[in-house]
Amino acid sequence: MQSTSFSQFTIQSIVWTLPRLTTTTTTGRKIGNLFPISVMASRHQVTHSMPPEKLEVFKSLEPWVSENILDFRKPIEKCWQPSEFLPNASQGPDGFIEEVRALRQRVLGLSDEYFVTLVANMLGEETLPTNLTVFNTLDGVRDETGSSSCPWAIWSRAWAAEENRHGDLLRTYIYLSGRVDMMMIEKTMQYTLRAGLDNKTENNPYLGFVYASIQERATFFTHGNMARLAKEAGDPSLARICGTIASDEKRHESAYTKIVEKLLEVDPNATMLAIAHDKNRIVMPMHLMCDGQDSNMYDNLP
Ligand SMILES: [Fe+2]
Ligand SMILES: [Fe+2]
After folding, report:
1. Residue list, CB under 5 A from ion ligand 2
2. How far is the CA of 2 from the centre of ligand 1 (A)?
3. Which of 98, 124, 134, 231 has the most crowded CB, counting CB atoms within 10 A?
4. Are 23 and 30 in contact (CB under 8 A)?
5. Of 112, 130, 166, 277, which is the active-site residue?
6. For the segment 12-64, what is each residue's pLDDT rounded down to a tens digit?
7. Is 56 in the active site?
8. Segment (H or E) for 16
9. How many CA atoms lie within 13 A of 28 on its CB side?
10. What ligand has the least distance to the C-alpha of 159?
11. How far is ligand 2, taken at its centre, from the CA of residue 53, in Å?
12. Where does Fe cation 2 bind (predicted)?
């Protein structure tokens, strides 16, 4: 059996020929540079770069994952849920409308730039299908059945469930705020999910776990910063939302960092190579974000 295989394939260039349009917030501010024609560059992708004999490393770590990583899951009954942070729709209509009105009043102090970043964060959370797909490309740790009892898979499903509520909560709050063009956001979500994510982890769990630990740290910082800014702008409810999500991200970062530390212990050479690889090539999850008009939307964010 070949120890390492590489494949090279080209993703067909995608050309959209749409009329020039602009994105606006409800306060009328134009966001981003939009182009009538967008071209997605061809990308070289490496697959299955981990030698097959390394699969044994991840197999041997399964008991350790059960004992040391699964505890990073919070029991569902003790977990927060999005509805705790949102206007209560199950009360009478007057009370619900009053809570929505108060929400819309609170967000008035937040800038358009804040909302652009909040929407980008929300879209990042809502690309969960892509993120779980990428996790399940990793050799030796993927969920082989969709409900596997392998500890790596038990962890990945629990992690995905927590990420799912981040997107649910942010999306609903943004929708109720009335500050953004939801149709445009929803189209962007569709384009972005179709584009996927090319994070260059090569089906290689060493690369995948280093990437995840860095990525969770980045999301911890961004949600934490958004919490601070919301508080300063007079929306303590949104500050609590972003702070609560940031706390989940910190726990995720701790889990993935612990996995990388264990890999450094059992296989320092391969793990150091993965750290060097990811350190120089980190790709943000939304790097292929597109609204159907701007192929370089991520770089053009204000
Ligand atoms: Fe998240
Ligand atoms: Fe996370």
Report:
1. 216, 249, 252
2. 37
3. 124
4. yes
5. 166
6. 221 222 222 334 455 545 343 333 333 345 568 899 999 999 999 999 999 99
7. no
8. strand 15-17
9. 0
10. 2
11. 30
12. 163, 216, 249, 252
pLDDT tens digit sequence for 172-231: 999 999 999 999 999 999 999 999 998 889 999 999 999 999 999 999 999 999 999 999
Query: Measured between alpha carbons, how far is 39 from 43 in angstroms, rounded to an integer?
Result: 12
219 is an active site residue: yes
Separation of CA 249 and ligand 1 centre (Å): 6
Q: Are 298 and 287 in contact (CB under 8 A)?
A: yes
- What 3-state class would DSSP assign to 30? strand
CA angle 242/248/254 to nearest 5° reads 135
In the set 25, 127, 130, 219, the catalytic residue is 219
In this structure, the chain runs to a length of: 302
Per-residue confidence (pLDDT) for residue 8, from 0 to 100: 24
Handedness of CA 185, 188, 194, 196 (dihedral sign): negative
**Which of 103-112, 162-171, 190-199 shows the lowest mean pLDDT across its residues?**
190-199
For residue 202, give the DSSP letter. Answer: T
**Catalytic annotation present for 299:** no
